[in-house]
Amino acid sequence: MMAMENANLISENTFSFSMAPFGIDSAIDFGAPKESRMSDIADMQWISLNDDYFWSVHCQGFALGSTTNSWAWGSVKGETDTISGGEVYSMFDTAASAIIFPKFYFEQVLYEIFNSMGGDEYELADGYVISKCYEDFPIVYFLFNDKWLAVDPADYVVDISERQDRSMCVLLLSQSDAAFFIMGLPVYMDYYTVHNDSENRIGFVPRAGSNKETLQTGGKPTRVLESTDPADPEVSVWSWIISSLLVLSFMGIWVCVICGTITNSRKNKVSV
Are residues 101 and 155 in the same domain? Predict the structure, then answer.
């Protein structure tokens, strides 16, 4: 991108995607974003990125159906480099066909998704989720920079039945051993996304012609989705101090008891 800008082939170090469902043209734009591809440029919301080599940011939580039904991410033992404070390192990647979760949360997220529908007809196959084609899959939200990014059911539920009769679906949700998220194509669907390398940020706005909702703002969830391998609970300094005082007090009592016993024994010997 920088080489194209230096050669005056583009006006700025930016590229953008307009991701549309199958049957509708998608597009990629190099250089200045095209307002004609946006529903309303005033609805553009920017997500600031980490200062590293990827289009990365920390995910502050997720929600199902409504942004009020939300969770922060629980701790994972030995993974504090990418998971801490209820947040998980995440990379945006259009080359990934699915949203790839750290394995520490995947089963719990699936349980919450299907529990919200009162269903349980699904199974894992080759890393993907094969499911009955329920009609009421929830919107899945992910929180970045206090902004909720929406993934509609149509973006992550795909009919894979031979006759396309919705007798079998696959969820574009997967898992890996890595302790970070890959935010693949489903999070881009029906948005116009602007990747601004110079300012190290990504902008999201509903694409023109879509019914996608504008990104909502919100705070970090207070409820926590526990991982399958939580970190050991931290022990405060005061806990150590109190524990030490109790041990010392206990030892002091025993010393007094022992000394008293020895003294009494000596008195008895003298009396004899």
Answer: yes
pLDDT at 199 over 90: yes
CA–CA distance, 142 with 63 (Å, rounded to integer) = 7
The answer to whether residue 216 scores a pLDDT higher than 90 is yes
Within-domain flag for 232: no
Query: For residue 270, what pLDDT band results from cuts at 50, 70 and 90?
Result: very low
User: The domain containing residue 263 runs over which residues?
Assistant: 242-272
Contact status, residue 166 vs residue 133, Cβ threshold 8 Å:
yes
The amino acid sitting at 219 is G
3-state SS class at 122: strand
143: domain CATH number is: 2.40.70.10
Q: Is 85 left (phi over 0), alpha (psi -120 to 50) or beta?
A: left
CA separation for the pair 105, 82 (Å, rounded) = 14
Contact 39, 211 (CB under 8 A): no
Asked if residue 250 and residue 191 are part of one domain, the reply reads no
Are residues 215 and 105 part of one domain? yes
Structure tokens at 47: 């997500």
Same domain, 37 and 112: yes
Report residue 125's pLDDT band, with 50, 70 and 90 as the boundaries: confident
pLDDT band of residue 7 (cuts 50, 70, 90) is low
How high is the pLDDT of residue 31? 92
Name the amino acid, one letter, at 4: M
**How buried is 31 (Cβ within 10 angstroms: 0-12 exposed, 13-18 middle, 19+ buried)?**
middle
Confidence of residue 232 (pLDDT cuts 50, 70, 90): confident
> What pLDDT is attached to residue 13?
86
Give the mean model confidence (pLDDT) for residues 159-186. Answer: 95
CB proximity list for 244: less than 8 A, separation 6 or greater: none
